[in-house]
C-alpha cells in the first residue's frame, strides 16, 4: 500500500513537473507561433487580413468640416478685428473606393494610387451642403502674395469683377470648387484655370503613385512608404531632414508596436512626415490599443524644437522663425499662401490667435491621434484634425486690403478625418487574432499553475512520508 502511494506521489511529481515545464516552454513557443501568424497575415498581399483592410478600409472613413463664418466682413476692411463663428459639421464619406493600379513589384514593394471621392452624408451634417456662409474670398486673398509684381492690375480686376475680400458661398462650392469672377478677369497667360476651392480638384482625381514595402522580406518594414510620385524624398523644404518621407500613411504600422518609439506617418496634404507620441493604453470594443498623439513639438517654432528649422521658409511671416503652430505650405501648393495648423490654432503662438475673435482651442476636440493595436500594428481608430488658413496682409496698392488691421493667417475651415472600427470588424479581429492569443495565454498559465501545484503537493507529501518512515 505504502509502495503504491509512494509510486503515485512520484508519478504525480513527475507529471506536475512536466506540465510546468510544458507551460514554460509554451511561452517562447507561443510567442513564435504568434509572431509567425502575424508575419504571415500582416503582409500586404492578396488573401491576408492586412491586404483586405489596406485595399479599402474595413470601417467607413469620414471627413467632417467646420467652416468659419465671418460676421463682420465690412468692418474688417476698415481695420476691425475679425469675428468668426464656427458652423458645422458637414460630413462626407471618403476612402470608400479601393486603391487603384495596384502592382506587386519584384523588390518586395507594392505601387498604387489612392482615388479621391467624397459623398455627402446629410444624416451626419447640420444641414445640406447648399448652406451658404460668409467666408474668405480664396482667390482675392491669395492673389497678392502669388503675384506681388501685379498688384495694381489685380486691384483693377477685383473692381471689374465686383469682388471683395469676403464672399457668400455654399459649403459645396467652398470645398469642391466654383468659377470665380475675379479669376475670370485675369488673362489665361497668368491663370488658365478659373475655378478655385479649398480641395479643388478632388472628386475623380487620385493621389500618388505611392510605393510601399509589402513586408514579404521584412515585416518590420511593412506599409512604410519608400517613394511618392516617383521620388524617395520630397523637394519642398530644401533640406534633407524635412524632405524625408518617413513612416506609413497611418492606416497601419509595422507589427509589435513599441510605446516608447514615436510612430511616423506621411501626409501628402501637409507635404511632410509627422509623428505621434504614446499617450495612453486603453481598451476599445475588447481590443487593447495604444494611443499616439501628434505633440505640441511637431509644430513648434525652431527655437523650441530645432528639428523644425527647415519648416521656417519665410522669416518675415514667421517673425524671424519665432512663430509656432502653423506650417507654410506655399512651396508645395503652387505658391498659394496656404498655412496649415491644428483647429482653432491649437498650440499656435498667442499673436496668431489674438488677431481674431471667436476661436477657442481644446486639446480633446482638436488634437490629432491614432489608436493602434500593438501586436498587429493595425489602426483601429484615428482622428486627423487640420485647419486650412490663408495668409494675407495690408497692401496699399489694393483698395480692399489698404485699411486692414495688420497681417492675418486667416482660417477658412477645419476638418476631422476619422474612422472607428465597427462592431462586426472588431468581432472578426478578436476571433482571428485576439481570442487565439488569449486562449494560448490561458493554456500557458493553466499548465504552469496546475503543474506547479501538482509538483509541489506531491513532492511535499512525498518528503513528509519519507521523514515519518525514517522516524519509525
Quick recap:
The chain has helices at residues 2-41, 49-55, 73-77, 138-146, 151-160, 171-176, 181-185, 350-354, 363-366, 423-471, and strands at residues 61-70, 84-94, 100-104, 109-115, 119-121, 132-136, 166-170, 178-179, 195-196, 206-213, 225-228, 263-267, 272-284, 287-293, 326-328, 338-341, 369-372, 379-392, 408-420. By secondary structure, it is of the alpha+beta class. The protein folds into 2 domains: 2-37 and 430-471; 59-96 and 119-201 and 233-421, no CATH class.
Topology:
Blueprint: H1 2-41, H2 49-55, E1 61-70, H3 73-77, E2 84-94, E3 100-104, E4 109-115, E5 119-121, E6 132-136, H4 138-146, H5 151-160, E7 166-170, H6 171-176, E8 178-179, H7 181-185, E9 195-196, E10 206-213, E11 225-228, E12 263-267, E13 272-284, E14 287-293, E15 326-328, E16 338-341, H8 350-354, H9 363-366, E17 369-372, E18 379-392, E19 408-420, H10 423-471
Antiparallel strand pairs: 1-2, 1-19, 2-5, 3-4, 4-10, 6-7, 8-9, 10-11, 12-13, 13-14, 14-17, 15-16, 16-18, 17-18, 18-19
Helix pairs in contact: 1-10
Amino acid at each position: 500500500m505504502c509502495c503504491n502511494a509512494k509510486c503515485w506521489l512520484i508519478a504525480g511529481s513527475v507529471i506536475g513537473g512536466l506540465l510546468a515545464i510544458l507551460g514554460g516552454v509554451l511561452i517562447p513557443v507561443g510567442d513564435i507561433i504568434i509572431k509567425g501568424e502575424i508575419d504571415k497575415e500582416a503582409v500586404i498581399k492578396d488573401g491576408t487580413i492586412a491586404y483586405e483592410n489596406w485595399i479599402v478600409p474595413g470601417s467607413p472613413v469620414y471627413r467632417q468640416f467646420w467652416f468659419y463664418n465671418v460676421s463682420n466682413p465690412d468692418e474688417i476692411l476698415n481695420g476691425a478685428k475679425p469675428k468668426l463663428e464656427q458652423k458645422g459639421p458637414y460630413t462626407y464619406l471618403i476612402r470608400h473606393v479601393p486603391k487603384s493600379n495596384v502592382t506587386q513589384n519584384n523588390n518586395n514593394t507594392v505601387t498604387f494610387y489612392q482615388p479621391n471621392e467624397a459623398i455627402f452624408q446629410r444624416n451626419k451634417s447640420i444641414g445640406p451642403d447648399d448652406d451658404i456662409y460668409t467666408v474668405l474670398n480664396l482667390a482675392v486673398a491669395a492673389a497678392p502674395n502669388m503675384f506681388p509684381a501685379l498688384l495694381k492690375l489685380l486691384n483693377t480686376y477685383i473692381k471689374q469683377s465686383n469682388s471683395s475680400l469676403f464672399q457668400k458661398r455654399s459649403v459645396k462650392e467652398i470645398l469642391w470648387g466654383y468659377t470665380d469672377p475675379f479669376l475670370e478677369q485675369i488673362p489665361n497667360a497668368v491663370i488658365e484655370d478659373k475655378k478655385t476651392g479649398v480641395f479643388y480638384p478632388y472628386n475623380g482625381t487620385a493621389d500618388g503613385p505611392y510605393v510601399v514595402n509589402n513586408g514579404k522580406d521584412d515585416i518590420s518594414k511593412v506599409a512604410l512608404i519608400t517613394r511618392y510620385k516617383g521620388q524617395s524624398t520630397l523637394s519642398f523644404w530644401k533640406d534633407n531632414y524635412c524632405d524625408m518621407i518617413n513612416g506609413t500613411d497611418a492606416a497601419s504600422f509595422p507589427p509589435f508596436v513599441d510605446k516608447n518609439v514615436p510612430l511616423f506617418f506621411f501626409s501628402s496634404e501637409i507635404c511632410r512626415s509627422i509623428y505621434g507620441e504614446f499617450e495612453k493604453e486603453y481598451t476599445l470594443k475588447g481590443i487593447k490599443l495604444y494611443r499616439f498623439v501628434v505633440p505640441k513639438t511637431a509644430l513648434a517654432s525652431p527655437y523650441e524644437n530645432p528639428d523644425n528649422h527647415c519648416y521656417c521658409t519665410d522669416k518675415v511671416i514667421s517673425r524671424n522663425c519665432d512663430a509656432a503652430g502653423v506650417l507654410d505650405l506655399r512651396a508645395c501648393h503652387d505658391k498659394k499662401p496656404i498655412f496649415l495648423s491644428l483647429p482653432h490654432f491649437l498650440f499656435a503662438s498667442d499673436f496668431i490667435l489674438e488677431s481674431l475673435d471667436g476661436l477657442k482651442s481644446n486639446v480633446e476636440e482638436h488634437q490629432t491621434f491614432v489608436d493602434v493595436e500593438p501586436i498587429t500594428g493595425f489602426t483601429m481608430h484615428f482622428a486627423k484634425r487640420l485647419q486650412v488658413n490663408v495668409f494675407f496682409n495690408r497692401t496699399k496698392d489694393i483698395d480692399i486690403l489698404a485699411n486692414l488691421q495688420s497681417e492675418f493667417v486667416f482660417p477658412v475651415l477645419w476638418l476631422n478625418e476619422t474612422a472607428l472600427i465597427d462592431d462586426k470588424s472588431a468581432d472578426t479581429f478578436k476571433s482571428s487574432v485576439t481570442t487565439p492569443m488569449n486562449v494560448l495565454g490561458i493554456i500557458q498559465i493553466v499548465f504552469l499553475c496546475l503543474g506547479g501545484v501538482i509538483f509541489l503537493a506531491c513532492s511535499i507529501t512525498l518528503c513528509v512520508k519519507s521523514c515519518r518512515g525514517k522516524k519509525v
